[in-house]
Design brief:
The chain is of the alpha/beta class. It folds into three domains: about 10-195, P-loop containing nucleotide triphosphate hydrolases (Rossmann fold, 3-Layer(aba) Sandwich); about 200-275, Helicase, Ruva Protein, domain 3 (Orthogonal Bundle), CATH 1.10.8; about 290-330, Arc Repressor Mutant, subunit A. Helices cover about 45% and strands about 10% of the residues. The protein has 14 helices and 13 strands. Helix 6 (about 135-150) crosses helix 8 (about 185-190) and helix 9 (about 210-220) packs across helix 11. The protein is globular. It starts with 9 loop residues before the first strand and ends in a 5-residue tail after the last helix. The model is unreliable at about 1-5 (pLDDT under 50). The structure holds adenosine-5'-diphosphate (ADP) and magnesium ion.
Amino acid sequence: MNKESGIHEAILAPEDLQISKAELASRHHIVVQSEGLKRVVHDALKAARSKSTILISGESGTGKELIARLMHNVSPRKTKPFVVVNCGALPETLLETELFGHEKGAFTGATFRKIGLFETAHEGTIFLDEIGEMSPTMQVKLLRVIQEGTFNRIGSAVPITVDVRVISATNKELYEEVKKKKFREDLYYRLNVIHLSIPPLRERKEDIPPLVEFFIDEFKNTIGIEDLSISDEALTLITSYHWPGNVRELENSIERAVVMGNGQEILPQDLGIQKAEIRDNHIEVGITLQQALDSFKKDFIKKTLLLTKGNRKKAAEILDIQRTYLSRLIKEYDLEV
Ligand SMILES: Nc1ncnc2c1ncn2[C@@H]1O[C@H](COP(=O)(O)OP(=O)(O)O)[C@@H](O)[C@H]1O
Ligand SMILES: [Mg+2]
């Protein structure tokens, strides 16, 4: 299947789960070019058929939810619900009623019975986003559902049994939270039977050109433009930018450029990227590590001071260091103006 264009290149998956790049893009809206993302997709497809818990880690906007949906959509559970819960968005008590539901009269204001999301997701998949934000009490309750497959609606003594596949996601180093005793170690291992780690976009720049093409296609259709190209300068700017918001930021930037541009060719100024945000990719080698670190530190402090227009108090806050320490570094690196 390896055609010249590479478009039909198969993402190797076991047996009947051979999915081509073209199918990933058209049906699952996933663009895959880099080796790093190919590996993630390959593992995701392989793991999709099982019921093992999955932990997907990656910075915000790298495609964690997209990968979770892919896993659901190619799994035997695909005709059943895929339920998304943002564990960081709700206070503890609300999260509990959302997940487990409650009986009528369970607490003041519980005027009706509420079915929780674990019940809604029965025979399907539940996607627990920002799992690292979950409170200790909720962690215990989640552990029970995962270990025993049962829970109680709030205000009920009758345990409910569900068959739910759990996929969770985190943009934190979750094991660091375990070390800090903020996340239960036993729950960590329960959630993390299979771990998928999506690299940030800046570490898989091969994905950028096909993503740009994909998003241009998508957005030009919504506003009825037939032909729209991108200038070399714009593409260079896009590939040299470091995309802290990852694919989500790129998607928004292309949308903006398609809508606000001249309708024929996307130019650098349409993208809404500040030139100052471009990271300098020039790295000198053949010097000691200490010299390299010093040069980076000097550059970094200089840029932060530029950002704060020389305000040391603000700069120290951004850098999260003491103001006196910053002053010492400024002197040491000869950054005084
Ligand atoms: N490889 C990809 N191909 C196409 N679109 C992508 C890809 N990765 C992410 N996206 C898009 O970027 C946006 C953010 O993805 P999302 O899955 O919500 O990220 P996360 O859950 O990691 O914050 C979504 O609109 C998603 O469709
Ligand atoms: Mg998300």
